[in-house]
Amino acid sequence: MECNDIKCPIHGKLKVHGYEFEGLVVSDKARKTVIINRDYTIFLHKYERSLRKTSRIAAYNPDCIKAKTGDIVSVGGTRRLSKTKSFVVTKIIKSA
User: Taking the model in full, what pTM does it have?
Assistant: First the structure.
């Protein structure tokens, strides 16, 4: 399969820089977009406790990668692609 997507980080001209993380794909309903849940912890010094939090991030999903719901993916930061998308899926770590 040949990828002709300009916004693809592997075959296109989109540069990946800045923040990289892993997350779980929770939705792939939108066209070329996936919603990723990222779990992280922060430490509250006042109470000397850790707090678990989640964030939902919209990321661009190229045709050559095609991440589906339930996949664990690696995501990298990039230039602003739309109002909500500033990240792109770079690879699938574990398939659902």
Answer: 0.89
Q: For domain 20-94, is the CATH number 2.40.50.1000?
A: yes
To which residue do tokens 């690696």 refer?
74
Contacts 24+ apart (CB under 8 A), 81-87: 81/7, 84/58, 85/33, 85/58, 85/59, 85/60, 87/36, 87/57, 87/58, 87/59, 87/60
59's tokens:
């990321």
- Rounded Cα distance, 27 and 5, in Å: 21
Q: What is the DSSP letter of 68?
A: -
Q: For residue 2, what pLDDT is reported?
A: 77
Using an 8 Å Cβ cutoff, are 62 and 9 in contact?
yes
Domain coordinates in residue numbering, the chain: 20-94
